[in-house]
């Protein structure tokens, strides 16, 4: 197989997942690019670390009501899944339909929402919006339990149009009010045994455990409504169907998917791809799987110019480094610290800063966050005792003979990515490698002093600009 095929597959797996080891890339190249895309878009058994195993070691991950344990639990899923696009897309929807612990004070319902994204995230967009509208975490997050017939709360209706589907400029204030009317009575159910007095006196009037969707017909406005140019006795389902068929919705969804999976900035070539994605959106009946299939199979996406055009998000950075290093494949108490590192880098899983979610792209990078990113990845990749790093060292050792500093650096860049760094960065890496002289591959096989040199070079690669990009 050619280096070109490996580089293309590595690009796909960085975007549609969390990267891949060289062994994984070679196996996928044997499958063929289009076959791998189909496999990603049709996830089967994720074979992630099982819950019962996790709970033997992490008591805090049994109820999962606290943020730390819940975020660590999701980290396990991202690290160990064999269906990476399923998790990557759940992370995308979590950022787009931002719902946070700060208001809910209940992490279990947030994980339930993430699980909903896994089940429906590749399906039809109108169905995703319907599931979102019935989601207990979203109901509380945007106050729809306070949206009543004759006394509407516009919060959910406004964000449904502005941030979740169409974007500003494609609807009116009147559309927001009519939308809110349609979602009156879409509220939260509670534990059956709690009586009225207990609810009245409780500091948790909606409980913290058994939240579920409840439609209260007697609180639903069944009157005539005018919405986005159409008039009728619209229900919430009708409102969603009207939203889904708008050109503005197709553009909104396609653009956001493009920016997350293809490039932070949209150029003229990107606009053409977005138009093709919009066509797929309508032709498939609003199916996200079809939209992503159009993107991944486009010549734009497969071109060399599209590579390393996105800045990795914090969770993406952490998970890709861990999967490369081969760690956290079994219960490890340090997984809580892993979730904390994402927070230090600016992304607290299950607790976005606002209903807007996280501002991505270059806004991920500031002086503090960058130091955290480099330090975490450098620590993961510089330890030759980690199984994934040992495999990289073995790959270099199998070349045989003596490697010059230039060759050693090129081998490390290839096996960690492949990554192409700028001339200045490569010169600095070679200068560092030259301090130790040539490398005898026999020394690598026998566990000699040169083993740590490989780890140290990988550590320096982790600090390059290129490593922060996907």
Question: Can you describe this structure in just a few lines?
Answer:
This protein is mostly helical and 470 residues long. It contains 27 helices and six strands.
Secondary-structure blueprint:
Elements: H1 3-16, H2 22-31, H3 33-41, H4 51-57, H5 60-63, H6 67-80, H7 84-96, H8 101-104, H9 107-120, H10 125-133, H11 136-141, H12 155-162, H13 173-182, E1 186-189, H14 196-201, E2 212-215, E3 225-227, E4 230-232, H15 236-244, H16 247-261, H17 268-283, H18 288-296, H19 299-302, H20 314-325, H21 335-344, H22 367-381, H23 387-397, E5 402-403, H24 405-416, H25 423-434, E6 439-440, H26 441-445, H27 450-461
Antiparallel strand pairs: 1-2, 3-4, 5-6
Walk me through what this model shows.
The chain has 470 residues and is mainly alpha-helical. It has a domain at 384-470. It has helices at 3-16, 22-31, 33-41, 51-57, 60-63, 67-80, 84-96, 101-104, 107-120, 125-133, 136-141, 155-162, 173-182, 196-201, 236-244, 247-261, 268-283, 288-296, 299-302, 314-325, 335-344, 367-381, 387-397, 405-416, 423-434, 441-445, 450-461; strands at 186-189, 212-215, 225-227, 230-232, 402-403, 439-440. A two-stranded antiparallel sheet has the order 1-2. The protein has a two-stranded antiparallel sheet with strand order 3-4. The chain has a two-stranded antiparallel ribbon with strand order 5-6. The longest helix is centred in the middle third of the chain and has 16 residues, at 268-283.
């Amino acid at each position: 197989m050619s280096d070109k095929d490996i580089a293309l597959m590595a690009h796909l797996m960085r975007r549609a997942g969390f990267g891949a080891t060289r062994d994984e890339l070679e196996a996928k190249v044997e499958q063929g690019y289009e076959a791998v895309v189909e496999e990603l878009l049709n996830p089967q058994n994720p074979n992630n670390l099982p819950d019962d195993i996790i709970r033997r070691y992490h008591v805090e991950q049994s109820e999962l009501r606290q943020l730390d344990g819940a975020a660590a639990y999701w980290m396990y899923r991202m690290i160990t899944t064999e269906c990476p696009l399923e998790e990557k897309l759940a992370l995308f929807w979590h950022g787009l339909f931002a719902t946070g612990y700060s208001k809910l004070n209940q992490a279990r319902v947030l994980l339930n929402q993430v699980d909903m994204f896994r089940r429906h995230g590749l399906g039809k967009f109108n169905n995703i919006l319907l599931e979102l509208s019935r989601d207990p975490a979203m109901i509380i997050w945007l106050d729809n339990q306070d949206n009543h017939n004759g006394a509407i709360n516009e919060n959910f209706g406004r964000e449904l149009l502005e941030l979740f589907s169409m974007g500003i400029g494609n609807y009116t204030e009147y559309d927001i009010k009519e939308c809110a009317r349609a979602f009156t009575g879409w509220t939260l159910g509670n534990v059956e045994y709690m009586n009225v007095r207990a609810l009245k006196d409780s500091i948790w009037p909606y409980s913290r455990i058994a939240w579920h969707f409840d439609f209260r017909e007697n609180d639903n406005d069944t009157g005539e409504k005018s919405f986005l140019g159409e008039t009728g006795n619209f229900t919430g389902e009708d409102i969603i169907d009207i939203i889904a068929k708008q050109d503005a919705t197709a553009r909104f969804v396609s653009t956001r998917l493009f920016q997350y999976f293809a490039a932070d900035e949209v150029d003229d070539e990107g606009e053409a791809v977005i138009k093709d994605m919009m066509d797929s959106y309508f032709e498939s009946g609003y199916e996200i799987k079809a939209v992503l299939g159009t993107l991944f199979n486009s010549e734009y996406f497969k071109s060399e110019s599209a590579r390393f055009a996105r800045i990795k998000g914090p969770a993406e950075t952490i998970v890709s480094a861990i999967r490369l290093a081969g760690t956290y494949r079994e219960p490890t108490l340090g997984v809580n610290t892993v979730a904390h590192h994402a927070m230090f880098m600016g992304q607290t899983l299950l607790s976005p800063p606002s209903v807007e979610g996280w501002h991505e792209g270059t806004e991920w990078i500031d002086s503090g966050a960058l130091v955290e990113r480099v330090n975490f990845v450098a620590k993961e990749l510089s330890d030759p005792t980690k199984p994934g790093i040992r495999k990289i060292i073995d790959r270099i050792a199998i070349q045989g003979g003596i490697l010059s500093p230039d060759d050693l650096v090129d081998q490390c860049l290839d096996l960690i990515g492949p990554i192409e760094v700028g001339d200045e960065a490569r010169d600095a890496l070679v200068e560092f490698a030259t301090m130790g002289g040539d490398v005898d591959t026999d020394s690598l096989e026998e566990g000699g002093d040169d083993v740590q040199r490989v780890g140290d070079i990988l550590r320096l690669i982790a600090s390059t600009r290129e490593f922060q990009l996907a």
